[in-house]
Specification:
four-stranded antiparallel beta sheet
């Protein structure tokens, strides 16, 4: 089965898989759920997406089952993917009719802050207002503007980056490392409110139409509370990489694709400690489920 990533299409996240029968299936990542799998070496193309309208899109599997070349796609699928065009739409790039219809629906501009204090500006379509931030793994986030379409919201996003220096992307590795030793929730909330206030002040003084400044805080999913809240017991980075071998985890909390997990041994008993594992690293990997466990380094004491 080919992993397409962690999906937050509802308050209950799942590991989304594409089967050999060319169908999607979801494996729940609820609190307490066990995940045992073996990763087959290699990184594979996830196919491409055709966008038909605001709520209508089709996934097209890679015709040749190729290895990934550009991100999580082969060159041919990357060239056919509608979604790659959306980030340049506001600069006058021509896009297919379906993608244009998607982009012309209302969008939200948000400011998201992560566990290490890194803060970014981003956009979300109206139907995915909440889900987008859940997927990002934000610790705190605020909506700062509601735009009439995707062109306006991306103009605003670029302006915020240019004028205030807020980035538009935070690397997954940085998010995961931040959750091993997170800054305090009070500090992160204050930081997000500070950045959001600066953005609202900027947007309130622009001679641009097609949007309204808003003041609304995002509600973090309940499953993320333990991972994003007070650190409590000491945490450790997951002691393996998801590029090969067997892995066994029991989910305790989940923020975006990043899990706080216990590691069961062969007898099913969890070893001491909590581990921060980026399940997003499974995206583009082929896996087989089974009673697998994570190999703990021989010098286990060094973890503690």
């Amino acid at each position: 089965m080919l992993v397409h990533g962690v999906a937050w299409d509802s308050p209950s996240p799942t590991l989304r898989l594409f089967t050999a029968d060319s169908e999607f299936t979801d494996v729940a990542l609820a609190q307490g759920s066990a995940l045992g799998l073996r990763v087959i070496p290699g990184l594979w193309c996830l196919g491409h997406t055709k966008v038909h309208g605001p709520g209508d899109r089709t996934h097209v599997p890679c015709r040749s089952g190729s290895a990934a070349e550009r991100g999580k796609q082969c060159g041919a699928c990357f060239a056919r993917d509608d979604s790659r065009l959306m980030h340049d739409f506001h600069r006058g790039t021509s896009v297919p009719t379906g993608l244009r219809a998607y982009l012309m629906q209302p969008h939200w501009l948000y400011v998201a802050t992560f566990a290490n204090g890194a803060t970014k500006v981003g956009t979300a379509s109206a139907p995915r207002k909440w889900n987008r931030l859940a997927e990002q793994g934000a610790v705190h986030a605020s909506y700062v503007a509601h735009a009439e379409d995707g062109r306006v919201v991306r103009v605003l996003e670029d302006m915020v980056t240019r004028e205030l220096g807020l980035v538009q992307q935070v690397r997954s590795a940085s998010k995961a490392a931040g959750l091993v030793e997170p800054r305090s929730g009070v500090e992160l909330l204050a930081l997000n409110r500070q950045h959001s206030g600066r953005v609202r002040e900027l947007l309130g003084g622009l001679a641009v139409t097609g949007y309204a400044v808003v003041e609304e805080e995002w509600e973090r999913p309940a499953l993320a509370e333990q991972l994003c809240g007070a650190a409590g017991a000491r945490r450790h980075p997951y002691p393996a990489t998801f590029d090969a071998g067997g892995h066994g985890l029991r989910i305790r909390s989940l923020s975006g694709p990043i899990a706080l997990a216990g590691l069961p041994d062969a007898a099913g008993n969890e070893v001491e400690g909590s581990f921060v594992a980026d399940l997003g690293a499974l995206k583009g990997r082929k896996i087989e489920f089974g009673p697998h466990t994570t190999e703990i380094p021989a010098l286990q004491d060094s973890l503690f």
